[in-house]
Amino acid sequence: MHGPNAASRLPCQAVKQINASVMISYRIDGEKPFFKRVLCLVGGLSVAALFAIACYLSTPTFAYSDNSPHMTYRVDVYNASILQRIIHYDFGMPAVVRLYRVEPSALLAESQVVDMSAGNGSISWHTAPPLDFNEVYAGHGVLFENIPSECPTQAPPPSCLNRPETKSR
C-alpha cells in the first residue's frame, strides 16, 4: 500500500466497511431488520386477504327461512355461493336448502345446489295430520323424506292437541 493512491484508498475502504456494517446491523428495538418486518407484515396481510376472499367466494348467503306449522322444523334457503353459481351457470336461481329440527337444534338434511326458479320457492309441509306423509317440499326440486311427524301419537306437543278437527263428508 505504498504510493500516492494508497492513502486515499484507506479512508474510502474504512467508510465502505462502516456503511456496510451499519446497514446490516440496522435494527429497530433490537429485533429483525425493518425491511424484513415490513415484508412479513405484507405477506401475512396478503395471506389473510386471500383466505377472506376464498371464504367469500365459497360461502352461500342466507335468503329466507320458513317454520313448520307446529314450529318443530325449520327450512332455511341460501343463495348459492359465487363459485357454485359459476359451476351451475345454467340455473336461473341456484340455491341450497337446509332442514333443521328446532328443539333440540340439529341439522337434519341439506340439499345439493338446486334451481329454485323452476318453482315458486314455496315450502310445503307434509309432517302433520291430515297430510302426514313425513315429507317436506322446497320449491320444485327439493324433497326431504322420512321426516318424523310433528304430532306423534304418544305425547303430542300442545299445538297438536289444539288443532281444529277436519270433518269428512
What does this structure look like?
With 169 residues, the chain is of the alpha+beta class. 33% of the residues lie in helices and 24% in strands. It is built from four helices and eight strands. Strands 1, 2, 3, 4 and 5 form a five-stranded antiparallel β-sheet that branches. Strands 6-7-8 form a three-stranded antiparallel β-sheet, with no helix packed on it. The longest helix has 25 residues, at 34-58. It is elongated, with a radius of gyration of 34 Å.
Structural class: alpha+beta
Total beta-strand segments: 8
Q: Strand fraction band?
A: 15-25%
SSE series: HHEEHEEEEEEH
Anisotropy-based shape:
elongated
Give a quick account of the main beta sheet: strands, pairing sense, barrel closure. Answer: 5 strands, antiparallel
Q: Radius of gyration in whole Å, from Cα?
A: 34 Å
Helix segment tally:
4
Low-confidence stretches: 163-169
Distance between the termini: 124 Å
Element layout with pairings:
Elements: H1 4-24, H2 34-58, E1 61-67, E2 73-79, H3 82-87, E3 94-101, E4 106-110, E5 114-115, E6 123-126, E7 135-138, E8 142-145, H4 158-161
Antiparallel strand pairs: 1-2, 2-3, 3-4, 3-5, 6-7, 7-8
Looking at this protein, list some descriptive labels.
169 residues; alpha+beta; five-stranded antiparallel β-sheet; three-stranded antiparallel β-sheet; 4 helices; 33% helix; 24% strand
Summarize the structure.
This protein has 169 residues and is of the alpha+beta class. It has helices at 4-24, 34-58, 82-87, 158-161, and strands at residues 61-67, 73-79, 94-101, 106-110, 114-115, 123-126, 135-138, 142-145.
